Amino acid sequence: MSNPQDRLHQPTLTTHGIQPENQETPISFLSTNAMSSELFFKRNHFSYPTLTYSNYWLPINGLVSTPKVFSLQEIVKLPSKTIKVALECAGNKRSLFEPKTFGDQWGKGAISQGFWTGVPLTTLLEATGMNANAKEILFEGYDKGKRTDLNNEYSYSRSLPLEKALDPDTIIAYEYNSQPIPFKHGYPLRLIVPNWYGMASVKWIKQISLISSEFKGPYQSVDYVYYPNKENDSGAFPVTTVNVNSTIQQPVDRDIMNTGTHVIKGIAWTGTGKISKVEVSTDQGETWFDAFHEPPNGSYGWSSWTFEWSVYEPGEYTLMSKATDSFGRTQPLEPFWNRKGYGYHAIDQVHVKIE
Questions:
Q1: Which of 72, 106, 152, 206 is the most exposed place for a label (fewest CB within 10 A)?
Q2: What mean pLDDT do residues 159-184 have?
Q3: Contact 232, 269 (CB under 8 A)
Q4: Which is nearest to 195 in space by CA: 217, 227, 167?
């Protein structure tokens, strides 16, 4: 049993919004690679939905051979799988963009990970069959509300192309870390889409529909789109796969430290392949050294890394981390700037003072 005193020393979420609730993980102070649901970041577009769990059903309809409505009890009895997944909000690190972009000014904590258990979507679709004309699979959440820019009410809905939807690791999850998914994180059923930004993992699933055309809902055609130009929409393309990225967890930015030996630690992650290398610089990028990082373990989680730094000269230092994945993608010095501030992936930096 945990000591109640220990809870007094636990980190807490940083709040960016109350209505709707948006809070980020205290990423610098995590002591575990599978975090509790209490420290998992929250990203919402609307107020939490009102659901009746005792009468919960999941319809699968549209271009299917046999439309079917699954009960929650039926779903949990089907063959399941558990996968470790890091979910990153597409707006993670938005506050670091220059020039600034509008939207919640997330720091480095709009990312969390743990173990999700659920049924592969393909298993459910085997029971309904698929029409040859189906091109995408649409997921509608119970959360809904009015958008001021479009002056209309919408539910949170997004689609996946068939290739991604039919990946055996795209699951309809009902547990997180071996417990029912907490209500604020999508209970009773949440879509989990490994390697894509978190907006794809629709919470509180209301229904699944197979459709023949490209879905154009606002959370797919207006938001979660990269707009490279500030003044117009030319060159726009959708936000999908997570960029290769890293974060220095310790020391924290603007820390004051003594001379001696310090352990620089952090995490690295990617949406393609695995992390193959993490490099650290302690002289503002002049020289780079390999950090020790966890080898790939077949999951979709992040890789923790450490680097031992011996420093004996007082002064101000810029520490940097740079990750490379098995597809050869490496963090750039400058991020890909886009008007809505998605996918920040530049080399991470913290500034420290040695006394």
A1: 152
A2: 97
A3: no
A4: 167
Residue 69: partners with Cβ closer than 8 Å, 6 or more residues away: 57, 58, 59, 60
| Measured distance CA(134)–CA(350) in Å, rounded | 48
Domain ranges across the chain:
4-238, 245-354
Return the H-helix or E-strand segment holding 62. strand 57-62
pLDDT, tens digit (0-9, with 9 covering 90-100), for 125-143: 999 999 999 999 999 999 9
Check whether the bond before 168 is cis (ω within 30° of 0): no
Provide Rg for the chain, Cα atoms.
21
Question: What's the pLDDT at 34?
Answer: 86
Instruction: Give the pTM.
Output: 0.95
| Residues facing residue 190 across a β-bridge | 173
Fold annotation for 245-354: Immunoglobulin-like (2.60.40)
What is the rounded distance in angstroms from the CA atom of residue 177 to the CA atom of residue 65?
35
Q: How far apart are CA 228 and CA 220, in angstroms?
A: 16
Quickly state the pLDDT bin for 5 (edges 50, 70, 90): very low
Domain topology for 4-238:
Sulfite Oxidase; Chain A, domain 2 (3.90.420)
Mean pLDDT is lowest, of 9-13, 118-122, 137-141, for: 9-13
Measured CA to CA in angstroms, residue 131 lies from 119, 121, 209 at distances of 21, 16, 12
Please report the pLDDT score of residue 51 as a whole number. 83
* Cβ 83 vs Cβ 116: under 8 Å: yes
